[in-house]
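I am still getting used to backbone structure tokens and would like to learn alongside you. Label the sequence line and the structure token line clearly, so we can match residues to local backbone shapes. Go ahead whenever you are ready, and we will take it from there:
>
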Amino acid sequence: MVSLLAGLTILIIGDSHLATPTYLIESLHDDLLKQGAKTVHTIGVCGSTPAEWLAATPGACGGAERVGSARAVVKGQAAATVPVAQLIANEKPDLVIAVFGDTMAGYTRPDFPKTWAWQQTTSLVKAIAGTKTKCAWVGPPWGSEGGKYGKTYPRVQLISKFLEANVSPCRYIDSTKLSKPGQWATVDGQHFTPTGYQQWGNAIAQALAKP
């Protein structure tokens, strides 16, 4: 059976889950190439939120970039977002994948910042949809409760449902349906071990390859 990803030019943008060589910039990127994608370009900027991809914005904690089968290039303090409209105009991708959720969830805040999150989400979706490029949005995975970022499963569930309702016309990939809570090992509650990222990347690629 031929994968839906065969022959596609794919652009992936997102937060810290793409910003280190052993993260999704390795696992998901490689899996998409294995599925037959023509080329994959991944840019991760640590701490970035969706609306920060509408204009060039310096990263808060580093980043990385990878093109095709080359190794990821770590950007460090030079990391910055690139306006998504500019990326799409230059590269003409068949599919844009946005990986966001954890930077929007406000895990340490008593209330979910719904209005702000709505503005963040819809502004990026509108920018991508305005180019008539197909898109997919990968929501946050369970991770582990607690840790440095104060992640909680109820808040993960809340942000995931929120994104599902607000990313159309992008296709939503619900990461909470790809594993059980705590199934994939993390190093700090939010970021996975290399094995955890391998499992998440594989699951995302399989989900994207299905109609």
